[in-house]
Write a structure and sequence with these properties.
The chain is mostly helical. It contains six helices and no strands.
């Protein structure tokens, strides 16, 4: 547990949307494929998982795919990233990491629900 995670649960129960423009620029700058800007590159995915504190070889990547409602396994599209995290109230890497870690923790702690 990082101490800031405990103070950062104020998005629960609120309908605050994240900034799609900030998320789009984050995606483009940090994760987008050079040839196809609409999807995350392989390097981008590894960087994204690292930024979220997620092991790329674990089930935790499935938690992210679930959070973003991804249509295709192993492919993260820009629209899914932007709209998914905006709907979760995220606008930056720190908020994304907090949200992903909260969800990973809830999956780990709640085996009956999944």
């Amino acid at each position: 547990y990082n101490s800031y995670n405990n103070n950062n649960n104020n998005n629960y129960g609120s309908n605050k949307k994240g900034s799609t423009s900030k998320l789009e620029s984050l995606f483009k700058k940090s994760y987008a494929d050079k040839e196809d800007k609409e999807i995350m590159s392989e390097q981008g995915m590894l960087k994204f998982f690292k930024d979220c504190g997620v092991n790329p070889e674990s089930y935790q990547t499935l938690v992210i795919a679930y959070l973003l409602k991804c249509e295709e396994m192993g492919i993260y599209e820009k629209d899914e990233f932007v709209n998914g995290f905006a709907d979760l109230g995220c606008s930056n890497k720190k908020e994304i990491k907090t949200k992903v870690q909260d969800k990973v923790r809830s999956v780990q702690n709640n085996t009956g629900e999944y």
